[in-house]
């Protein structure tokens, strides 16, 4: 009796150990295979990202400034009087057309700046999100946002009605997708939107907030693959190893990490017409001093309103090339634009209104670097309007000459920034009417 009880206990123990070992092996195997999977995808994406990099970023800036000037002459402003007012050339391209909802894909032709080639899902069908739930990470339900974004084929994703989508885990967006919130008030909350190792993603006209950290788990990232994801930080939108990404007319606030973070050698990106509020670390472009691959980053930040409750990093930059143009900075508590690791920051035609705090008047902040090292970084301010004691501490040393006003088409001056950003954030568009 006693002997057989002991035996069966041993047997149970043996089984328990065997099961535990099997689970451990399965888990380790899955972790390993998923790491390999993402490493491979990152490597493949790196070649496409290199192809998206432009060798003459000054020409790209000039093109941008030329387009803004052309679209904002007194005569062209006069042409656009009426119930709809589009005050910058991105909006001019689509907003005041009564048929915008029948011709949604026109938006893909409206991008400007380094992300101007972003096609989103323009080559695909329209997919309508009818179901706000997000219960299934491995086999997402048809009709949900997650089902749409993981498809391998291009899709232009729209929403059937107003909805709050509470993500249970990070939302991993596959290539060639547009998330187009026009015509509905769409809130994406609860976890981050991840754009990783892909190209041609447009995120437009939605509210992104209260993204929280998640410890990870099994999540589908494409039609053919799901796997074990490690923790996600709770950024609003996290762009990793990707190119041709355009974020436009998004309202973002209060996420647990950054609002928009761009890392791992991503490039050809534009963040425009967006409204940022209630957040400390707003935008991080390049997350680590030990990722020199971020030298490839070329990002345009334009027509955004950096508003109430913001503290710092609008953006904070490492390594790359950043055109920060025609934005309206009405609130910051520490500084507006900062960085380290020799980023090139060309600030043009922005309006910077400093806070009353006498210690926070400086727009710029050089992080963890002695003057001797940072004086060569090209940080230029051209045509910015500096108010309430705001000052932009320029640097550039010998490299500076390359970026002299002389070679450049000046941006629309910062005194127009209020007008250019007047409609920043998610719009309230009605089908059948100019927006
Ligand atoms: C590991 O992946 C296999 C299939 O690839 C799956 O059956 C198994 O449940 C996974 N293990 C864990 C711990 O998720
Ligand atoms: C994604 O869009 C780009 C630009 O339109 C296109 O060249 C590419 O073939 C598309 N990719 C897929 C998978 O459809
Ligand atoms: C942001 O959200 C968190 C958690 O939901 C909340 O506790 C906090 O008060 C919010 N902060 C702001 C500035 O709204
Ligand atoms: C991506 O960037 C993060 C943050 O800098 C870093 O920890 C990670 O190692 C990078 N991954 C790759 C594949 O470079
Ligand atoms: C500008 O930055 C340099 C280097 O950090 C610093 O030495 C100098 O005092 C700054 N100028 C002002 C006006 O703050």
Overall number of domains = 1
Strand order of the largest sheet: 1-2-5-8-13-16-20-24-27-30
Secondary-structure arrangement, i.e. CATH architecture: 3 Solenoid
Determine the N-to-C terminus distance: 83 Å
Shape field: globular
Q: Largest beta sheet, briefly?
A: 10 strands, parallel
At a glance:
By secondary structure, the chain is α/β, with parallel strands linked by helices. The chain has helices spanning 2-52, 57-71, 74-79, 89-92, 145-149, 371-374, 417-420, and strands spanning 125-129, 155-159, 163-166, 171-173, 177-180, 186-190, 193-196, 199-204, 207-211, 217-220, 226-229, 237-240, 243-248, 251-253, 260-263, 267-272, 275-277, 279-281, 283-285, 298-302, 305-306, 310-312, 316-318, 321-325, 328-329, 337-340, 344-348, 351-353, 364-366, 379-382, 385-387.
Based on the model shown, name its key terms:
435 residues, binds 2-acetamido-2-deoxy-beta-D-glucopyranose, Pectate Lyase C-like, single chain, nine-stranded parallel β-sheet, Pectate lyase, lyase, ten-stranded parallel β-sheet, alpha/beta
Structure characterization notes:
The protein is of the alpha/beta class. The protein has one domain (48-420): Pectate Lyase C-like, CATH 2.160.20.10. The protein is 20% helix and 28% strand. It has helices spanning 2-52, 57-71, 74-79, 89-92, 145-149, 371-374, 417-420; strands at residues 125-129, 155-159, 163-166, 171-173, 177-180, 186-190, 193-196, 199-204, 207-211, 217-220, 226-229, 237-240, 243-248, 251-253, 260-263, 267-272, 275-277, 279-281, 283-285, 298-302, 305-306, 310-312, 316-318, 321-325, 328-329, 337-340, 344-348, 351-353, 364-366, 379-382, 385-387. The strands form five sheets. Strands 1-2-5-8-13-16-20-24-27-30 form a ten-stranded parallel beta sheet. It has a nine-stranded parallel beta sheet with strand order 3-6-9-14-17-21-25-28-31, with no helix packed on it. It has an eight-stranded parallel beta sheet with strand order 4-7-12-15-19-23-26-29, with no helix packed on it. The longest helix has 51 residues, at 2-52. The N and C termini lie far apart (83 Å). Residues 18-27 have low confidence and may be disordered. The site of one 2-acetamido-2-deoxy-beta-D-glucopyranose (NAG) has 5 residues, from helix 6. GO terms for molecular function: metal ion binding; pectate lyase activity. Keywords: Calcium, Glycoprotein, Lyase, Metal-binding, Signal. It is an enzyme of class 4 (lyase). Its cofactor is Ca(2+). Residues 162-358 form the Pectate lyase domain.
């Amino acid at each position: 009796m006693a002997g057989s009880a002991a035996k069966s206990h041993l047997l149970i123990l043996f089984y328990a150990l065997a099961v535990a070992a099997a689970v451990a092996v399965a888990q380790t195997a899955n972790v390993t295979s998923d790491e390999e999977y993402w490493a491979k995808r990152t490597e493949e994406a790196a070649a496409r990202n290199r192809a998206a990099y432009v060798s003459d970023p000054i020409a790209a800036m000039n093109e941008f400034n030329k387009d803004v000037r052309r679209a904002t002459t007194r005569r062209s402003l006069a042409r656009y009087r009426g119930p709809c007012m589009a005050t910058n050339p991105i909006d001019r391209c689509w907003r005041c057309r009564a048929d915008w909802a029948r011709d949604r894909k026109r938006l893909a032709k409206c991008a400007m700046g380094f992300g101007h080639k972003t096609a989103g899902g323009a080559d695909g069908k329209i997919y309508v999100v009818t179901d706000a739930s997000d219960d299934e990470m491995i086999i997402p339900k048809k009709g949900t946002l997650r089902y749409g974004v993981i498809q391998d084929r291009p899709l232009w994703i729209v929403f059937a009605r107003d909805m709050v989508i509470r993500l249970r885990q990070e939302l991993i967006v596959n290539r060639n997708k547009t998330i187009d919130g026009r015509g509905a008030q769409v809130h994406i909350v609860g976890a981050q939107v991840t754009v990783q190792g892909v190209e041609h993603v447009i995120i437009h006209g939605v509210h992104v907030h209260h993204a929280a950290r998640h410890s990870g788990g099994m999540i589908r990232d494409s039609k053919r693959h799901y796997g074990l994801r490690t923790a996600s930080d709770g950024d609003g939108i996290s762009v990793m190893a990707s190119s041709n990404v355009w974020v436009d007319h998004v309202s973002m606030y209060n996420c647990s990490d950054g609002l928009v973070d761009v890392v791992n050698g991503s490039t050809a990106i534009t963040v425009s017409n967006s409204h940022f509020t209630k957040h400390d670390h707003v935008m991080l472009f390049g997350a680590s001093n030990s990722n020199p691959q971020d030298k490839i980053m070329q990002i345009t930040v334009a027509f955004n309103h950096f508003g109430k409750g913001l503290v710092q990093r609008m953006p904070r930059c490492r390594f790359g090339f950043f055109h920060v143009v025609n934005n309206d900075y009405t609130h910051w508590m520490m500084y507006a634009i900062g960085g380290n690791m020799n980023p090139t920051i060309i600030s043009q035609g922005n309006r910077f209104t400093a806070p009353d705090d006498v210690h926070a008047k400086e727009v710029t902040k050089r992080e963890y670097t002695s003057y001797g090292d940072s004086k060569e970084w090209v940080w230029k301010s051209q045509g910015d309007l500096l108010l309430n004691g705001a000052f932009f501490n320029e640097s550039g040393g010998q490299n500076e000459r390359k970026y002299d006003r002389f070679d450049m088409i000046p941006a629309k001056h910062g005194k127009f920034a209020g007008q250019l950003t007047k409609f920043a954030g998610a719009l309230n568009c009605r089908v059948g009417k100019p927006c």
